[in-house]
Amino acid sequence: MAKKFLDRIRDYFDQDKTVRMVADDVQLTAELMLLIRMMFADGRLAKRELDNFKRICKTAFNIPEEDVIDVINYLKETGYETSAEEAARMFQELDIERRRGLLLHMLSIARSDEELSTDEIGLLRSTAKTLGMTTDDLAKLLD
Question: Where are the domains of the chain?
Fold first, then answer.
């Protein structure tokens, strides 16, 4: 019984540690906010989009799946006034591969439900533009 109690305490602080990691990294916060906006760009959240977001969080950012909801809640509380363009501006000075990676993650989430809505394409275009990438750059990613 004491072990289960200690495990729960450790799990709680580990989740808090993940939220602190996100809070301490402005670019990670901005990227996650853009990915979350992409999940909701078409006006609904498909389970496959959330599952893909969790996969990206785990593989690209080392965020354990069980912490993703806490991270989303943190971003919801702190990022509600941040626009997609403001979040994308955080990436303007990064190398082209990092900017492409952001767009690829966004595109992966948009395609999770097997359709690209006009709102998702609009968010991809505006983000690409903010990142200094051309329509041709974006078209290459879409192929």
Answer: 2-142
Stated pTM of the model: 0.82
115 secondary structure, DSSP code: -
Q: Which CATH architecture has domain 2-142?
A: Orthogonal Bundle (1.10)
∠ CA 62-103-112, nearest 5°, is 75
The rounded distance, in Å, linking the Cα atoms of 97 and 102 is 9
For the stretch 61-71, pLDDT in tens is: 999 999 999 99
CA-wise closest residue to 73 among 111, 123, 112, 18:
18
Residue 134: what pLDDT?
82
Residues in the chain: 143
